[in-house]
Amino acid sequence: MFGATSVGVGAIVGGGILALAGVAFATTGPSAILAFGLNGVIAVLTALSFAEMASKFPESGGTYTFSRKVLSVESAFTVGWVVWFASIVAAVLYAIGFGSFATLLMSELYSTQGSVPSWLGEPWSVPAVSIATTVGIGAMMTFRSSGGGAWINVAKVAVFSVLIVGGFWALSEQSVLKTTQELRPFLASGWGGLIQAMGYSFIALQGFDLIAAVGGEVREPAKNIPRAMLLSLVIALLIYLPLLFVLTTVGTDSSQNIRELAASDPEAVVALAAKHYLGTSGYWLVLIAAVLSMFSALQANLFAASRIALAMSRDNTLPAALSRLASGSNSPWVSVLVTIALVCLLIQILPNLAAAGAASSLIFLVTFAIAHWLSILVRQRCVIAPPPFRVPGYPFVPVVGGAACLALAVFQGIAVPEAGIIAVMWLALGGLLFLSLFARRARLTDVSNIASHPELSRLRGNSPLVLVPIANPNNARAMIALADTLVPAALGRVLVQTVVVAPPDWDPVANHRPSAQLHSVMNEILHASSSLGVRCETLTTVSPEPMQEIARVADLHQCQSVLLGLSEITAEARDTPLEGLLGQLSSDVVVLRAPKDWQLDQSQQILVPVGGRGGHDYLLTRLLSSLSREQQRQVKFLRVIPTDTLRSDQKRIRKELDRTTRANAGRVCEREIVISNDPIQTIVDRAGEAGLIILGAQRLGPRRKLFGNFTRKVALESNCPVIIISRRG
């Protein structure tokens, strides 16, 4: 908890108040104290929502991780992309702030000795110090997995404590009349000015969210993340509010009040006010506090930004190389280096730091509002496994907190239009990169995550339905077991359909055969569902055209998947009724051909022959992840190539197979290339008796799908079960 709190304290305490106290005082006068206090209330409400979700999802990534669990992969990328940018820009601002105060401190130290080096006055000195410090922090972060800067935090809190204690000492020697005069007029610009000051200064309390961004590295996260968030905010407010009070009451002489002092020099108001009541030592204390604060805030934002990039890369919404970890420290060194490089680049090229900072503030406020909304969705959808930490006063806390964050974001967008422009430009760039580079792999990874962790379907508001038409009683057990694997009963629905095939003028009294067939099938369905513990629903309809009836029911119930059984297959047949059904269905289709009495848990090995062309990637990924969710299976991707294949083509095919494996499986699996002129026999031999072969249906057009010659021959010659898949559409 101490380390997690250090991340929050490092990001919050110091830099914000030193940079924004002057703006707040100039805008609203002494009521800047109230502005910071109200912002503190909003921040605490937001931290509570963050804490609930961080306890439910104790992984690095912060708001991005929460979005990935609850929203679509495209929405999650958008949130992660802008939060990463906001953290990087915040790091840029703190890096430049550190460079400015560090060079000023060095100039003051040299001036006490009589001569100041000329290079300290050069325009390049501040960027040079900023970049050197950023690179140094990055180098440390690549060798150790920490970022709180604990001892620096202790030092700066001690310095601020001296400033506060000294202020109250001066206040004790001042008359009550003088103190009350300094607090008048309290609302110098009315309530409108107070709201403006809140909008300008809210970002001074940003930083508690960085604890969630590094949540994957916090021990006992369900307990320590909520405590660290609230504790870091409490520490910040216990420093900010008393400091603002003493700056207001004893920070000026009788010739001007705090608002006038802030209006004349907003950036130096804290230093000037401290110098007034503590003398030169107060000025030096502020400089020391500024250097320590900017350094720790820079370190915390770099640490959090690199972890956001790490979380995104693991989901393939950013390049996978960013998830590489150092062998000793497990630090994501590539993510750290990329983040450091972007910060150093922006230090040199960013033309308008004020607008960039406002854009960062705007993005954080919007994502805070999104976090409140997500916390409501999580509370509503996590019925089975609710978050360990739950927000008190629900739904008041997320509703009020979200509305307040959104209102401040709107104010920020109106007050600084450039902020909105920068945010939109960054979003546009991210959209282009996602669609052109990351979309396919990110969506495949998302499909795999949902199949491996079915609770994600419920978190996203989905209750998937799989339709299982059963006509052969011998297939009932295998079909229901596979359906439950695709859609677990606790998170979706399995609808078993039986079709009574009878003519339109069927008389059940005169013709008992359809009823007897139905009775036999229903007995096996009930026995299988009871023995497997699958609570499936059943639907019986009567139709002379069973395939059309299956298509009608699948469309009526908007089924995510349709699971079909295949009893007979021949080498020559084309456009069979079952293949005609494939063209009518808009759902994903899984066709199972299995020996009598086959059980799903018997197939420990899964063989996936590939021919170099995809088309069923998303369904294949979902199926493989579902099959491996509760039972470890050996998955092998197999490519059979002719004996006359050139070496150059073999090398290219190997790379293609590696890409296909990574994209479809997303896990450790075997890859094999076999040189043979008999691919059918090779596949049958590799599958063995305990295997399971997964093949794809051949798509000839939008509404025409066939099993294909290759699929037919494999199914005919193999003794093991075969699954044929056809992606929706």
Automatic annotation (TrEMBL):
A biological process term (GO) from this entry: transmembrane transport
Compartment(s) where it occurs, according to its Swiss-Prot or TrEMBL record: Membrane
Membrane topology category: Multi-pass membrane protein
UniProt-listed InterPro entries: AA-permease/SLC12A_dom (IPR004841), APC_superfamily (IPR050367), UspA (IPR006016)
Keyword Ribosomal protein tagged: no
Domain of life: Bacteria
Cellular component annotations (GO), alphabetically ordered: membrane
Residues of the Amino acid permease/ SLC12A domain: 5-416
Segments forming domain UspA: 606-725
SUPFAM superfamilies for the chain: Adenine nucleotide alpha hydrolases-like (SSF52402)
Gene3D superfamilies per UniProt: 3.40.50.12370, Amino acid/polyamine transporter I
UniProt keyword terms in alphabetical order: Membrane, Transmembrane, Transmembrane helix
Ranges that cross the membrane: 7-26, 32-55, 76-104, 150-171, 191-216, 228-247, 282-304, 333-350, 356-375, 396-415, 421-439
Record protein name field: Amino-acid transporter
Organism encoding this protein: Rhodopirellula islandica
